[in-house]
Amino acid sequence: MRTSATQCRRRSNAWSAGVSPAGQAASRRLGVETTPIQPARTPARPVLLIAFGVFILAMGVFLALPAAQPLLAKLARSGIAMLQHRGYLRLPSSVYEARLAGYLAGFATVALRRIAVPTNRRAGRILVD
Question: What is the DSSP code (8-state) at residue 129?
């Protein structure tokens, strides 16, 4: 069964929204049916992104609190032991544990400062007056 010229035009008009004029002409010459370019996917739902951001912020605040210091110290000590076992750390673990206390205190200070006072990272200026 053959299709009439009107049916072909209707079909090509329905599909022509996403096909360039040159593509339409080429498909007519070659006798092939073209498919339109698919539109871009819709972005992720903003609610999910906001919830993920709030979760990350809460984790950052929790890790900066003094209550999380024993957990962080325990994880760091196990990491030090693992790296010594694998041969990456040659000094005694007491050297690394002495450094660890300073690192944790510095981390807590920097984390709370960055959460409390947002800055323009490009210019390095504080946004809050």
Answer: -
